Amino acid sequence: MGDDILVFAEQRENRLHAGALQCVTAARSLAGKTGGQVVACVIGDATDQAVAAVQNAGVDRVIVVRDASLRLYSPLRYRTALAAAITKVGPRAVLMPATFMGRDLAPRVAVCIRGACATDVVDVSCGQNGAIDARRPVYNGKASCHVTLPANRVAVISIRPNVYAPSSGAAPGAVEPLAFAAAPGDDRVGARELMRAGGEIKDVAEADVIVAGGRSLKSEENFKIIYDLARELDAAVGASRAACDAGYQPHSRQVGLTGKTVTPKLYIACGISGAIQHLAGMRGSKVIVAINTDAEAPIFKAADYGIVGDLFKIVPLLTQEVHKLRHA
Amino acid sequence: MKILVIVKQVPDSTTVIKFAASGRDIERGGVKLVVNPFDEFAIELAVRLREARSDVETITVLTVGPASAAEALRTCLAIGADNAIHLQDAAFDSLDELQTAALIAAVVRERGYDLIVRGKQEIDLDSGQLGPALAELLNLPHVGAVTKFELAADGKSAVANRRVEGAEEIVPLQLPALVTVDKGLCEARYPSLPNLMKAKKKPMTALAAADLPGFADAVGGLGGSTLERLEPPPQRPPGKILKGEPEQVAAELVALLRSEAKAI
Asked: Which fold has domain B2-220?
């Protein structure tokens, strides 16, 4: 184990995940203390654009594991590939975005290399006596948990998206290919197909802006005003559990404890009262706007900006205002 | 086919969090404890497989936890599991997630389960480490956060769907395997009162550290993260409530989001 910090720079279909550059920022702050290098690792098949994106983000080296069998995610093949990169670099810590892929891969890799693991971390730093300190939200964001990872094991850490700013750098990092050798049995699982949801509206898990509606929308048709605002903001549409259970929106759009946890830069909650389960899924958002007729609704306690009023009046006006701004 | 479902007992999601004097846990007195909601989908999947097929021999449910966790096991027995394993020992309390996975691996390795099911994460400490870590320890393929699961007629393979950012992965896998399940896979059922009564007669095995000679070795070689303290989440500054006519507040909000929050 050395002083370097390895970043698993997640890509899908040759597009680097935004969280990868945020991990580089966290990695640079750790490497500043350990005195090591920041090394990125890109795993996939055609990865040139993803490699270029991370190469210029302030990393010292980029290790590229390319193979046709790595085109889509497989927990086994990606574990084998990342473990090989870890063996080559011998890092102090491995960081990756806490995406569906990163949350899946981090514990598996941590066991494989006999390391230690922390997931969905919002702050990571070098602690005392060589330990690594991490802070992560627990109990639906109702508490914050400080964890130390021991000095004698490689720390494998997934970093919550949109907490760290993206990194940028001057000199491009050196690219080093690393041959992929599958381990026996690695073909027992792997994605066969990646189906894009389609349509112009983004998924809540990948959007920087989310416009979400609650049961007050009263019907699927009425969600049109939410979609209109979302389109104007290039945002995803989210919904509360009540709205999904009522059939106004599919469960894939549900934000909350049993839906998706999201941390966009802007979250606009329309007609959502702010049940604790919903707050659990969105309170990590950078800026929160609440629009609700009930001035006592708990959502206003979480909001940076609140409007007490009728969403059926306010939301179309917001769409108009944003449109004016965008076309000014 | 033998199915293992791993569950955790957690505080109900509406629990008001108070911190214990140690600073390392929450105050447990009076807190309502439930089966982790994602694990409810796991037991539901197992029971549905049994209802749809003729080759499911046993459904075993396992938990690691204090004496109170037996209640969670009984709920799962009432929903349809056949037998339960309760790993309970003060020595288990200090294990981190990877070490807990190693403990479970040591117990289940020789029992020959064809399918292991678990919720994608726990709603208390939210780590989601256990499923993938256990799969690695048992050298099993796994698929995480599954929303659809179709087991082949011969029980030797399956196709799982999992949601990812903006897309869905279609993932074939071979059994034996482990899957962690997400919401959307199925609606979990409640146990009926008669079934809760019958569940009391179903076998429950309690195992402590002394019953597991390889325990120390199994958990000694990995993990070791320490929960140092819990504290309230960072406070957000109080928000601004905009007042006035709809036209006026809409314009004001968009201006603030642009100039002050720099969010659009």
From this structure: Rossmann fold (3.40.50)
